Amino acid sequence: MHLKLGEVSTIVVSSPLFAKEVLKNHDPSCADRPETLASKIMWNKYSDIAFCPYGNYWRQMRKICIVELLSSKNVRSFESIRLDEASGLVESIQSSSQEVPINLSEKIFFYISSITCRAAFGKVCRDPDTLINVLKNTVVLAGGFGFADLFPSSKMLNIFSWNKLKLSKMHRKLDSILEDIIDEHQQKSANGSGESGDEDLVDVFLRLKNSRTLEFPIENENIKAIIFKMKEKWMDGFI
C-alpha cells in the first residue's frame, strides 16, 4: 500500500512475500533511515550509527562498535560497574521506609543511567537531570514527523519550525555536557593517566581518533553523536 504523507512517500508492506523482498532480497536499498529534523539536529547531521546513511562510514562505525565497544571482553570489563550499581540499588530499596511506596521504575531507571554513564564516560554524569530530561524530550519529539518532515521542500517550515527551536535548545545543552566529558578525557590522556585495558567508551573513540588509521576520520562531533545515541537506546525502554 502506498501512502503519501505530505511530500513523503510511504510503502506499507503486510505480505510475507514482500516483507522478504524488503528485509532480505533488497535489504541494502531499504536500509537507510528516513531523514528527519530531529535526527539531523540531535545526532550531528546523521553522524551516529542508527541514522547515518548505509555505506562505508556506517560499516566502519558498526565494526568499531562490535570490535571495540561491545565485544565480550569489554562487556566483561564492566562487570564490576554492574555489580556495584546493583548493590547500590538493593541497598536503597532495603533502606527505604516501609510506610512509603517505592517507585521501582524510577530506581531502575537511575540504576541503568548510572551503569551507562560509568561505562560510557568513566563516572556518573555530573548533570544527570539535564541529560535525562534531554533524553526524554528527544524521544518525544523524535517519535513522529513534524510538518517540516512532511514537507521537506518548504524552506519556511524548516526555518520557523517550533520543533527545530526546541531541538536546537536541547542540542546545545547536550553538546555542552558531552564536550566537557570529552575535554576531561583528553586532559587525562595528555597527562598520561589513561591506561590501555581500563578504557571507557569515550577513551576508545579518542584512541581511534588520534590513531588516524580509520578510512573515515572521526572527530568530537562523531563521538558525541554516537555516545548519545547508544545511551539513548539503552535507556529508552524506561522513558
Automatic annotation (TrEMBL):
Keywords: Heme, Iron, Metal-binding, Monooxygenase, Oxidoreductase, Signal-anchor, Transmembrane. It is a single-pass type II membrane protein. It holds the Pfam family p450. It is found in: Membrane. Its main location: membrane. The keyword Transmembrane applies. The keyword Cell membrane does not apply. Transmembrane segments: none annotated. GO terms for molecular function: metal ion binding; monooxygenase activity. Belongs to the cytochrome P450 family. This is Cytochrome.
